[in-house]
Amino acid sequence: MPYNLLKGKKGIIFGALDEKSIAWKVALRAVEEGAQITLSNAPIALRMGKINELAAQCNAKVIPADATSLPDLEKLFTESMSILGGKLDFILHSIGMSPNVRKRVPYTDTSYENFQKTLDVSALSFHKVMQTAMKLDAINEWGSVVGLSYIAAQRAFPGYNDMADAKALLESITRSFGYEYGFKKKVRVNTISQSPTMTTAGSGVEGFDAFFHYAEKMSPLGNASADSCAEYCLTLFSDYTRMVTMQNLFHDGGFSFTGVSHQVVEEIMKK
Q1: Residue 170 belongs to what domain range?
Q2: Share of the chain above pLDDT 70, in %
Q3: Residue 149: inside a domain
Q4: What is the mean pLDDT of residues 131-160?
Q5: 201: how many CB neighbours lie within 10 A of its CB?
Q6: How many angstroms separate the CA atoms of 106 and 85, rounded?
Q7: Residue 1 lies in a domain
Q8: pTM
Q9: What is the total count of domains within the chain?
Q10: According to the 3-state scheme, what is the secondary structure of the chain?
């Protein structure tokens, strides 16, 4: 049931690829709650995904942009403000890619060229998005910027590879840029550390099924779905979280603070 939580608000959603994407679900829910949005993804992702279907459902304009390119980002923000008729109130950064993960290059044998690409796309793009927004004064006071993270930023998950380092950097940028943006423009910046989620990107990580099922057994509430993550994003876009900033917020059914669960203990004892 819609509550008009974002009535009159405007935003940009980065990273919607297909209906499995968290960004896709955020876009649909944001519009349902009264927001106007533009959608953006890298040109290659636009060719691979179904974003035009989403745009039709959301009555939204798709603006291609490489989030690692400052000229592309400036064009994106300028066009978005023109289309939406004013400054933005929220941004979702749902961007992550690792050539090392895709090519199954072991972490200890990393290709540093690939590693730098991972950091640029998955973390530095968050800084570039906010730097561009700040320079253009593109976000209203009390606006909200949200990035999607994962607990591999704090714990070792074999197979997550250099994406773990990228998520750690993403969360550090959240604190550092959030401090500056808060003081200068009253804009809040947070990340959501989501449960393993069956997205197209997530399922490309080696051992992902094991991550997913282990987290399900460990979490008192079970894994958080993509739909529930979208709803959590909306709360951070809304006026009800105006004093929340510089945080990494765990949305994982309790996994992050559970040492061991009865289910896991019982399974080990059986073996």
Answers
A1: 10-270
A2: 98
A3: yes
A4: 96
A5: 22
A6: 47
A7: no
A8: 0.95
A9: 1
A10: CCCCCCCCCEEEEECCCCCCCHHHHHHHHHHHCCCEEEEECCHHHHHHCCHHHHHHHHCCEECCCCCCCHHHHHHHHHHHHHHHCCCEEEEEECCCCCHHHHCCCCHHHCCHHHHHHHHHHHHHHHHHHHHHHHHCCCEEEEEEEEEEECHHHCCCCCCCCCHHHHHHHHHHHHHHHHHHHHHHHCCEEEEEEECCCCCCCHHHCCCHHHHHHHHHHHCCCCCCCHHHHHHHHHHHHCHHHCCCCCCEEEECCCHHHCCCCHHHHHHHHHC
Given pLDDT bands bounded at 50, 70 and 90, which one contains residue 271?
A: confident
pLDDT at 202: 64
Overall residue count recorded for the chain in this entry: 271
What is each CA distance from 94 to 12, 100, 102, 170, 271, in whole angstroms? 11, 19, 18, 11, 39
pLDDT digits (tens, 9 = 90+) for 40-84: 998 887 877 789 999 999 999 999 999 999 999 999 999 999 999
Q: Give me the CATH number covering residue 102.
A: 3.40.50.720
Looking up tokens 């460990």, which residue turns up? 218
The upper half-sphere exposure of residue 38, i.e. CA atoms within 13 Å in the direction of its Cβ, equals 24
**Domain-embedded: residue 5:** no
Q: Which residue has the higher pLDDT, 108 or 3?
A: 108
